[in-house]
Every structure is written in C-alpha cells, then in structure tokens.
Amino acid sequence: MELDWKRFNCSGKMCEEIRGDIGGAGFSLRDENGDILAAGAIGLGVDSILIHKLEAIKEALVFAKLKGWERIKVRIDSKLAADILNSKIDCPWKALVVYSDIKDLISYFKELTIFFVYRQCNQTADFVANYFKRVDKVIFESNFPLDLLRIVEEDKRGKLTVRV
Predict the structure, then answer these.
(1) In terms of residue numbers, what domain contains 35?
(2) Residue 28 lies in a domain
(3) SS3 88
(4) pTM for the whole thing?
(5) pLDDT per residue as tens digits for the range 34-61
(6) CA 139, CA 40: separation in Å to the nearest integer?
(7) What is the rounded CA–CA span in Å between residue 136 and residue 102?
(8) pLDDT at 92
(9) 141 falls in which pLDDT band (50, 70, 90)?
(10) Is residue 27 assigned to a domain?
(11) Cα torsion at 21, 77, 56, 152 (round to 10°)?
(12) Less CB within 10 Å around the terminal CB: N or C of the chain?
C-alpha cells in the first residue's frame, strides 16, 4: 500500500434482540502491515442494512477528514453500497440523505477509491460495528479491545475465517 494512503474497512449491522430493532455502523483503519491504527462505531436507529453500511463509510470519511488525510481507500462488504458510491447503479430513495452526505465528503479528498470485499475480509470492521450494542458512539485510537487485537493478529497470520 502506498505510504500516504489510508485504508478503511467499513461494516453495518442490524440487531433485533438487544434493544429492539436497532443497528450500527463501524470502521477500522489499518496500516500497510495490517496493524490497527483506529476504529469507530456508532449506534443507529431502525433503517435498512444498506443505510447502516453507508453510515459506516460516512463515519470513516468524517474521521479521515478530521485527521486531514487526503488519499483514502474504503473497503465495504456490501456490493450494493460499493456500486452505488461508484455510480454503477442509482441510489434508492431511502438512502439518499446519507448518500448525499458521503458525496459531499468525497469531494474533500484528493483521491478516494471504494472497493467491495467479501465478509471474510472485513472481520475487524464487523467486530467494531457490534459496539453499537454498548455505546452510542466510540472512537478508538489506542487501548483497543483485546478481542479486536486478537482478530487483527489472526488476520495478519492468515488464519482462515469461515463465516456463514
């Protein structure tokens, strides 16, 4: 990975059993060696999973903008979200507000690419997205949860993750 590029993985979640029908969004930022640099999560109301995935991207881009970074790579485990943001398909009307927010944020960056990745390649963001069950919003830049550090180390070692 080029040295001045920042790579975010993003994920959204839905949960019906904890606090009713709620969801969340999360992102993780890792360096070229695979080490975790930052992670964040936000709790969301009842929406579609697409909106939660897009909210994860929005949160990552807000974080990157606040840090002053200009070259961003976003990986998301939703082909639909990636295709919408890459202008391959039209955005559904229900997601237009967050889509518009993201498009405004994208204009800030010198370079930004959005890639679809399979869920198995997105485990750190998926883990962080689950934090919406505990807090309304959280950003980690140090003192990462031990389970997150374990996932990062296993991923760096190439451990195969089978998810259904």
Answers:
(1) 5-156
(2) yes
(3) coil
(4) 0.86
(5) 888 899 988 887 678 899 899 999 999 9
(6) 4
(7) 20
(8) 95
(9) very high
(10) yes
(11) 110
(12) C
